[in-house]
């Protein structure tokens, strides 16, 4: 008896799924067009999410590093005296709360006769490695970094753009006075997870030496200045403490400081570039609305074409919830199909075709994470449910007699 | 023989819901495009309006922007011998020596985050060299006084820059300056700046040099001669036409607009499918009607034309709605950080004829591509078969 009951239920499910399948294949052109109309917005959603996640990942990595950034209070462009480093270090009397302090000077840079600007930072040689473990330098690279004062670490995207590789000797003219021409030895161009692919790092001691040898103008000593300090703290509590303590210490000095978390510092720059994360989120939301409308359009067309069929189903004894379910499942399958295609296009294009080398503003290399594709499938389900809500509700409330009369 | 336009209009209204939903999809795509293009046009207009073709901007060789350029007094002194240099009625050369620094100023509410704003130290001659600049409110600062004038964009975008406001400047950020005037610069990038007496700025920032020199030329078509002289052994500085310098600042803008345009293009492609879907449904639902039209003498071309006009009509109306919606958003002044000058460039989104034509073009393309295949299908409808089904 129980087995007969189970068989009957199985048959019923099979029958219903067959009905949904037949409906989807009844008008293949409409199904294909709807999949495309849902799939393309999903493609934009995946691309936007990938960029937002890329920026978010970069910021989250910054937050994890327990680093503070100390800049000039009046403007990030105005430098700070290099001597501040020892003063910041002296704030930790125990010697355990501040792990390291690394001074950095922005020098920009350009290759002769090439208008493309570089993003190069000259850094304190002794504290760079402990302050930035996320650079993931190999022991061999660290050895070369410490031994060779002309060493330079090139961002992977920059290396690809300029055709540089480890072992190359390159010349970069700094973009700050006195604009010295610097000869470097490339020791790394490796791409590593979480590592900035654009910025290059060279040694501050080499820059200072080169600057001293150039003629410096009267009243302006180009050496002894840094753009900012990165302070790596031992714990989150230390980070919170020194955020206030450093600024307080320099309150009465000629160059007051502004100390903030690395994440906040980076975020300030990112939001000033057209607030890309927020604007891309808006674009993603708009595309989802477009997809919902396109799918609703199809489902309402399907309902109009099959109104009589719905009436017949109801007259055969199918209840309103079942009719509702038929239309919802059909919409879900349609949108999921569009979602899979829409997510697969960018995943394949930016992962396995020449498009993977395309440079995107801010994050440079666009990587489509699987998580973005999964998120897109979730959105496809939401689109499917929303798109079918009104047609399914209308169908479930269809009056049998009126619908059959229309058939006549 | 052609079907009247009224027929197309009534046909669209027959499937109200489907037409409306497709209309909304196309309108959203046009809306996004128009907002994007308005922003790009605003930035381009701001940078394009900056600088006069009669002016040369002189920087130190190797410097990528005024903010990183350093010209010594003896170097700028050599510029007076430059050929083709314009002079004022008293015979003084029109060379404006300028010092550029930056300061962090909070934006006006509701976004109170800080932006890096350019401060330019100038002498009286700057108002002659930058002939597009004129004081529109208040007065010019007094040389030697702690007074400033603010660009119109800067006044609108950043806090405390209205006439009578005070801001703190200087290496230690402890010298209080009073805003005494507001200037316009033909909508150009200079309106993002704050102008200060050069000698005072040198003093409060401890600088003994200038960042750039702007030369007014007698004959702009002989600019190459002057550039060659400045780059040559007599001066050894770098010179370029002022508009060229500001045009280079929009490189990053072009990249971002390109990226956004690709995304809008993909959205438009999706809209094509939505239109095609609706038009196919219209054809399927009117097979009998099409057959009847063919029977009473309307040719295949008239049928194709009718469906194409329907598609165009829907997309053009949606274009209008999208453009109107685009006009009502993001009107306030915005700014972005130039990664060359490291200063904020404020701009106002501009709705241009180019935006209008681009949006119209996009909607017509969407209408044409989305409507073509269904229209051809409609024209191929077999008369006998369709009438028999009826």
Tell me, rounded to a whole number, the average pLDDT of chain A: 86
- Tell me, rounded to a whole number, the average pLDDT of chain B: 86
Largest interface: A-B, 61 and 63 residues
Number of strands of chain B: 12
How many DSSP E strands of chain A?
A: 13
- Number of alpha- plus pi-helical segments of chain B: 13
Treating each run of at least 4 consecutive H or I residues as one helix, how many helices of chain A? 14
Strand arrangement in the largest pleated sheet of chain A:
6-7-5-8-4-3-10-1-11
Describe this structure as you would to a colleague:
The complex is a heterodimer of chains A (408) and B (390). Chain A has 408 residues and is α+β, with helices and mostly antiparallel strands. Helix content of chain A is 57%, strand content 14%. Chain A is built from 14 helices and 13 strands. Chain A has helices spanning 2-26, 28-64, 84-90, 125-131, 139-147, 156-162, 204-213, 236-249, 262-272, 276-305, 307-315, 320-352, 370-396, 400-407; strands at 67-72, 80-81, 98-106, 120-123, 151-153, 169-173, 181-188, 200-203, 225-226, 228-233, 257-261, 359-360, 364-365. In chain A, the strands form three sheets. Chain A has a nine-stranded mixed beta sheet with strand order 6-7-5-8-4-3-10-1-11, with helices on both faces. In chain A, strands 2-9 form a two-stranded antiparallel sheet. A two-stranded antiparallel sheet of chain A has the order 12-13. In chain A, strand 12 (359-360) and strand 13 form a beta hairpin. The radius of gyration of chain A is 31 Å and the shape is elongated. The mean pLDDT of chain A is 86. With 390 residues, chain B is of the alpha+beta class. Chain B folds into two domains: 5-48 and 251-389, no CATH class; 55-246, no CATH class. Helix content of chain B is 48%, strand content 18%. Chain B contains 13 helices and twelve strands. Chain B has helices spanning 5-14, 16-48, 73-77, 126-129, 152-157, 198-205, 223-231, 242-248, 251-285, 287-295, 300-327, 353-379, 383-389, and strands at residues 55-59, 95-106, 114-122, 134-138, 147-151, 166-169, 175-184, 194-197, 212-216, 238-241, 334-337, 344-347. In chain B, strands 1, 2, 3, 4, 5, 6, 7, 8, 9 and 10 form a ten-stranded mixed beta sheet that branches. In chain B, helix 2 packs across helix 11, helix 9 (251-285) runs parallel beside helix 12 and helix 10 crosses helix 13. The mean pLDDT of chain B is 86. Chains A and B meet through helix 2, helix 9 and helix 10 of A and helix 2, strand 2, strand 3, helix 9 and strand 11 of B.
